[in-house]
Protein backbone atom coordinates (compact mmCIF):
# COMPACT_ATOMS: atom_id res chain seq x y z
CA UNK A 1 0.00 0.00 0.00
CA UNK A 2 2.83 2.39 0.86
CA UNK A 3 4.48 1.85 -2.53
CA UNK A 4 1.15 2.40 -4.28
CA UNK A 5 0.63 5.64 -2.36
CA UNK A 6 4.15 6.83 -3.18
CA UNK A 7 3.64 5.97 -6.83
CA UNK A 8 0.33 7.85 -6.93
CA UNK A 9 1.84 10.87 -5.16
CA UNK A 10 4.78 10.85 -7.56
CA UNK A 11 2.47 10.72 -10.56
CA UNK A 12 0.46 13.69 -9.29
CA UNK A 13 3.65 15.69 -8.71
CA UNK A 14 4.83 14.90 -12.24
CA UNK A 15 1.43 16.00 -13.51
CA UNK A 16 1.68 19.31 -11.65
CA UNK A 17 5.23 19.83 -12.93
CA UNK A 18 4.09 19.33 -16.52
CA UNK A 19 1.09 21.62 -16.03
CA UNK A 20 3.28 24.25 -14.38
CA UNK A 21 5.80 24.26 -17.22
CA UNK A 22 3.00 24.55 -19.77
CA UNK A 23 1.48 27.42 -17.77
CA UNK A 24 4.82 29.22 -17.73
CA UNK A 25 4.95 28.92 -21.51
CA UNK A 26 1.40 30.23 -21.76
CA UNK A 27 2.29 33.21 -19.58
CA UNK A 28 5.29 34.04 -21.74
CA UNK A 29 2.95 34.35 -24.75
CA UNK A 30 0.79 37.05 -23.13
CA UNK A 31 1.60 40.25 -25.00
CA UNK A 32 0.02 42.70 -22.53
CA UNK A 33 0.73 41.60 -18.95
CA UNK A 34 -0.63 44.84 -17.53
CA UNK A 35 -3.99 44.25 -19.20
CA UNK A 36 -4.06 40.68 -17.86
CA UNK A 37 -3.46 42.10 -14.39
CA UNK A 38 -6.62 44.16 -14.80
CA UNK A 39 -8.57 41.07 -15.83
CA UNK A 40 -7.30 38.96 -12.94
CA UNK A 41 -7.10 41.58 -10.19
CA UNK A 42 -3.34 41.17 -9.89
CA UNK A 43 -1.09 44.14 -9.08
CA UNK A 44 1.20 45.28 -11.89
CA UNK A 45 4.47 46.31 -10.25
CA UNK A 46 6.42 46.73 -13.49
CA UNK A 47 7.72 44.85 -16.48
CA UNK A 48 9.53 42.37 -14.25
CA UNK A 49 7.02 41.68 -11.45
CA UNK A 50 3.35 41.27 -10.61
CA UNK A 51 1.70 40.46 -7.27
CA UNK A 52 -1.33 38.21 -7.06
CA UNK A 53 -3.34 37.39 -3.93
CA UNK A 54 -4.02 33.71 -3.35
CA UNK A 55 -5.79 32.55 -0.18
CA UNK A 56 -5.13 35.82 1.62
CA UNK A 57 -1.39 35.91 0.89
CA UNK A 58 0.60 37.91 -1.70
CA UNK A 59 2.52 35.90 -4.28
CA UNK A 60 5.16 37.52 -6.47
CA UNK A 61 5.62 36.44 -10.08
CA UNK A 62 8.88 37.68 -11.59
CA UNK A 63 9.74 37.96 -15.27
CA UNK A 64 11.17 36.89 -17.63
CA UNK A 65 12.10 33.70 -15.74
CA UNK A 66 8.52 33.29 -14.40
CA UNK A 67 9.40 32.42 -10.82
CA UNK A 68 6.79 32.47 -8.03
CA UNK A 69 7.52 33.29 -4.40
CA UNK A 70 5.45 33.99 -1.30
CA UNK A 71 6.01 37.68 -0.74
CA UNK A 72 9.66 38.33 0.00
CA UNK A 73 10.04 35.14 2.02
CA UNK A 74 12.29 32.19 1.18
CA UNK A 75 9.47 29.68 1.72
CA UNK A 76 9.17 27.31 -1.22
CA UNK A 77 5.73 27.54 -2.85
CA UNK A 78 4.17 24.08 -3.45
CA UNK A 79 4.06 23.13 -7.12
CA UNK A 80 0.29 22.75 -7.22
CA UNK A 81 -0.16 26.26 -5.76
CA UNK A 82 2.23 27.68 -8.37
CA UNK A 83 0.27 25.93 -11.10
CA UNK A 84 -3.09 27.21 -9.82
CA UNK A 85 -1.78 30.76 -9.60
CA UNK A 86 -0.52 30.73 -13.19
CA UNK A 87 -3.65 29.01 -14.50
CA UNK A 88 -5.83 31.65 -12.85
CA UNK A 89 -3.73 34.55 -14.10
CA UNK A 90 -3.42 33.36 -17.69
CA UNK A 91 -7.06 32.25 -18.00
CA UNK A 92 -8.74 35.25 -16.32
CA UNK A 93 -11.22 36.96 -18.63
CA UNK A 94 -12.18 39.81 -16.30
CA UNK A 95 -15.82 38.74 -16.27
CA UNK A 96 -17.77 40.55 -13.53
CA UNK A 97 -19.47 38.48 -10.81
CA UNK A 98 -22.96 37.23 -11.59
CA UNK A 99 -23.99 36.84 -7.92
CA UNK A 100 -25.54 33.53 -9.01
CA UNK A 101 -24.30 30.50 -7.08
CA UNK A 102 -23.82 27.18 -8.83
CA UNK A 103 -22.68 23.72 -7.75
CA UNK A 104 -19.78 21.68 -9.09
CA UNK A 105 -22.18 19.58 -11.15
CA UNK A 106 -23.05 22.70 -13.16
CA UNK A 107 -19.45 23.23 -14.29
CA UNK A 108 -18.27 21.89 -17.67
CA UNK A 109 -17.85 18.13 -17.17
CA UNK A 110 -18.86 18.54 -13.55
CA UNK A 111 -21.43 15.74 -13.58
CA UNK A 112 -18.80 13.23 -14.68
CA UNK A 113 -16.13 14.39 -12.24
CA UNK A 114 -18.40 15.01 -9.26
CA UNK A 115 -17.77 11.64 -7.51
CA UNK A 116 -14.02 12.39 -7.42
CA UNK A 117 -14.67 16.00 -6.40
CA UNK A 118 -16.93 14.84 -3.57
CA UNK A 119 -14.34 12.43 -2.19
CA UNK A 120 -11.50 14.96 -2.40
CA UNK A 121 -13.34 18.00 -1.02
CA UNK A 122 -16.88 17.76 0.34
CA UNK A 123 -16.37 14.47 2.18
CA UNK A 124 -13.35 15.69 4.23
CA UNK A 125 -15.08 19.04 4.80
CA UNK A 126 -18.09 17.31 6.37
CA UNK A 127 -15.98 14.72 8.19
CA UNK A 128 -13.87 17.32 10.02
CA UNK A 129 -16.35 20.17 10.46
CA UNK A 130 -19.84 18.68 10.15
CA UNK A 131 -20.37 18.09 13.87
CA UNK A 132 -19.04 21.54 14.75
CA UNK A 133 -19.87 23.89 11.85
CA UNK A 134 -18.91 27.00 13.82
CA UNK A 135 -15.31 25.76 13.82
CA UNK A 136 -15.27 26.24 10.05
CA UNK A 137 -15.99 29.95 10.44
CA UNK A 138 -13.19 30.50 12.95
CA UNK A 139 -10.60 28.57 10.91
CA UNK A 140 -11.55 30.21 7.61
CA UNK A 141 -10.57 33.64 8.95
CA UNK A 142 -6.88 32.86 8.29
CA UNK A 143 -7.71 32.34 4.61
CA UNK A 144 -9.62 35.60 4.47
CA UNK A 145 -12.98 33.90 4.90
CA UNK A 146 -16.15 35.83 5.74
CA UNK A 147 -19.25 34.39 7.37
CA UNK A 148 -22.20 33.81 5.02
CA UNK A 149 -25.86 32.98 5.56
CA UNK A 150 -26.29 29.52 4.08
CA UNK A 151 -26.99 26.24 5.89
CA UNK A 152 -26.12 25.98 9.59
CA UNK A 153 -22.72 27.57 8.93
CA UNK A 154 -21.05 28.89 5.83
CA UNK A 155 -18.08 30.99 4.74
CA UNK A 156 -17.00 32.74 1.57
CA UNK A 157 -13.28 32.49 0.87
CA UNK A 158 -11.89 34.68 -1.91
CA UNK A 159 -9.31 32.23 -3.20
CA UNK A 160 -8.32 34.76 -5.87
CA UNK A 161 -9.59 38.29 -6.48
CA UNK A 162 -12.39 37.06 -8.76
CA UNK A 163 -12.91 33.54 -7.39
CA UNK A 164 -15.12 33.39 -4.27
CA UNK A 165 -15.56 29.86 -2.90
CA UNK A 166 -18.58 29.28 -0.63
CA UNK A 167 -18.38 26.40 1.85
CA UNK A 168 -21.70 25.35 3.38
CA UNK A 169 -22.43 22.92 6.24
CA UNK A 170 -25.60 21.44 7.71
CA UNK A 171 -25.14 20.08 11.21
CA UNK A 172 -27.49 17.10 11.04
CA UNK A 173 -28.97 15.39 14.07
CA UNK A 174 -29.54 11.93 15.54
CA UNK A 175 -31.49 10.88 12.45
CA UNK A 176 -29.76 12.84 9.69
CA UNK A 177 -25.99 12.84 9.12
CA UNK A 178 -24.12 16.15 8.68
CA UNK A 179 -23.97 17.37 5.12
CA UNK A 180 -22.14 20.00 3.13
CA UNK A 181 -21.59 21.57 -0.25
CA UNK A 182 -19.24 23.91 -2.09
CA UNK A 183 -20.69 26.66 -4.28
CA UNK A 184 -19.22 28.99 -6.90
CA UNK A 185 -20.15 32.16 -8.73
CA UNK A 186 -21.55 31.23 -12.15
CA UNK A 187 -18.60 32.98 -13.85
CA UNK A 188 -15.92 30.71 -12.35
CA UNK A 189 -15.23 28.91 -15.64
CA UNK A 190 -13.96 32.23 -17.00
CA UNK A 191 -11.12 31.99 -14.47
CA UNK A 192 -10.39 28.31 -13.81
CA UNK A 193 -10.92 24.97 -15.51
CA UNK A 194 -13.11 22.38 -13.80
CA UNK A 195 -10.04 20.35 -12.80
CA UNK A 196 -8.39 23.47 -11.36
CA UNK A 197 -11.56 24.10 -9.31
CA UNK A 198 -11.15 20.61 -7.82
CA UNK A 199 -7.48 21.19 -6.99
CA UNK A 200 -8.26 24.61 -5.50
CA UNK A 201 -11.10 23.36 -3.30
CA UNK A 202 -8.99 20.42 -2.13
CA UNK A 203 -6.18 22.82 -1.21
CA UNK A 204 -8.58 25.03 0.75
CA UNK A 205 -10.17 22.14 2.66
CA UNK A 206 -6.86 20.61 3.69
CA UNK A 207 -5.41 23.95 4.76
CA UNK A 208 -8.44 24.28 7.07
CA UNK A 209 -8.06 20.72 8.36
CA UNK A 210 -4.34 21.19 8.94
CA UNK A 211 -5.15 24.26 11.03
CA UNK A 212 -7.37 22.09 13.27
CA UNK A 213 -4.59 19.54 13.71
CA UNK A 214 -2.00 22.17 14.63
CA UNK A 215 -4.28 23.94 17.11
What does this structure look like?
The protein is an alpha+beta fold and 215 residues long. The chain has two domains: 2-91, no CATH class; 101-213, TATA-Binding Protein (2-Layer Sandwich), CATH 3.30.310. Helix content is 45%, strand content 22%. The protein has six helices and nine strands, in the order ααββββαβααββββα. It has helices spanning 2-28, 33-40, 79-91, 110-129, 133-140, 194-213; strands spanning 43-46, 49-54, 57-62, 67-70, 101-103, 146-147, 153-160, 163-170, 179-185. The strands form two sheets. A five-stranded antiparallel β-sheet has the order 5-9-8-7-6. Strands 1-2-3-4 form a four-stranded antiparallel β-sheet, with helices on one face. It starts with a helix and ends with a helix.
Pick out its properties.
215 residues, alpha+beta, 6 helices, 45% helix
* Largest sheet descriptor: 5 strands, antiparallel
Share in helix? 40-55%
Alpha-carbon distance between the termini?
A: 30 Å
Quantity of strands, as a count = 9
- Low-pLDDT ranges: none
Query: What proportion strand?
Result: 15-25%
Mass-distribution shape: globular
Total tally of structural domains: 2
At the fold tier of CATH, the topology name of the largest domain is TATA-Binding Protein
Gyration radius (Cα, Å) is: 18 Å
Mean pLDDT: 92
Query: Quaternary state, please?
Result: single chain
Give the count of helical stretches. 6
